[in-house]
Predict the structure of TlpA family protein disulfide reductase.
Amino acid sequence: MATTTSPRWKKPLIICALVGGLVGGGYVAMTKSTPAPDVTFIDLKGQKVSTQSLRGKVVMVNFWATSCVTCVKEMPQMIETYNKYKGQGLEFVAVAMQYDPANYVINFTETRKLPFTVALDSGGDIAKSFGDVTLTPTTFVIDKDGKIIKRYVGEPKFADLHKLLEKELAG
């Protein structure tokens, strides 16, 4: 019996599908608030945004990939969430995973008209700083004091996410 190995690009798809299927709209919560790492995101235009510069705002950091079915599925709701709360001080950074080709990310960002900061993690350092993120989508909610208050692995339940954002933005 011959064995075959999957091409490298299939692994992220398989992981994404497993997370989407297993988590099923659920999330993994942090048990206590943890300081967000000090990182600098570089957006698609080369602008730098640091976690330090985002202090005083509620921030969502979403690790995603263009090859991740669940990521693509949740993106319209992420856009809707950002548009709903940006006027109240929400910041949003979508971090494309290291294995995602830059031209795919740029094309996705432009065709979907993503209204928030999109950053490339070409070295994988940002994902490592956030606890070695390997599963997509993974989304962190960071409070105004720079503490991670929630980590969602898989697509979040958006009604619950909105309640959390409303509470943090008001506080």
